[in-house]
Amino acid sequence: MLIAFTSETLALAGDYTSDKIGLGITKGAVFSPHQEINLAIRYSIGKGFTSDGKGNFTCQGWTEALRRFGPGSKDKEYQNKINTMEQNSREPKPTDY
């Protein structure tokens, strides 16, 4: 499975939320594909944490992070798609480039 990344996914006006500010994502910002992937992973990891409202955070795990991450809340197969990509990933070799 190949996923295409654009340079505007995380900062789209219709998908922008204030919780992205902590990662340095501002509304309408443009990022390189490398930055976009890095920020998307960091943002989704944060979705795996819950707060008790007193400043204490508990990690609910990768499965919960994927469920709560944007597409995961709308696409029930999103978590399986990501898990499949993770299982099929491998260390890159010079011949890959």
What does this 3D model show about the protein?
- This protein is mainly α.
- It is 38% helix and 6% strand.
- The protein contains four helices and two strands; from the N terminus they run αββααα.
- The chain has helices at residues 33-46, 62-68, 70-74, 78-88; strands at 49-51, 57-59.
- A two-stranded antiparallel sheet has the order 1-2.
- The longest helix has 14 residues, at 33-46.
- The chain is globular.
CA-based shape: globular
Q: What kind of sheet is the major sheet? A: 2 strands, antiparallel
How far the N terminus sits from the C terminus, by CA atoms, comes to 18 Å
Per DSSP, what share of the residues sits in E-state strands of 2 or more residues? 5-15%
The total beta strand count reads: 2
Radius of gyration over all CA atoms, rounded: 15 Å
Q: What is the topology, as strand order, of the major beta sheet?
A: 1-2
Oligomer classification: single chain
The proportion of residues forming helix, as a percent range, comes to: 25-40%
Regions with little confidence, pLDDT below 50 for 5+ residues: 1-8
Q: What is the compact description of this entry?
A:
This protein is mainly α and 97 residues long.
Task: Write a concise keyword list for the protein shown above.
mainly alpha; disordered N terminus; single chain; 97 residues; globular; two-stranded antiparallel ribbon; 2 strands
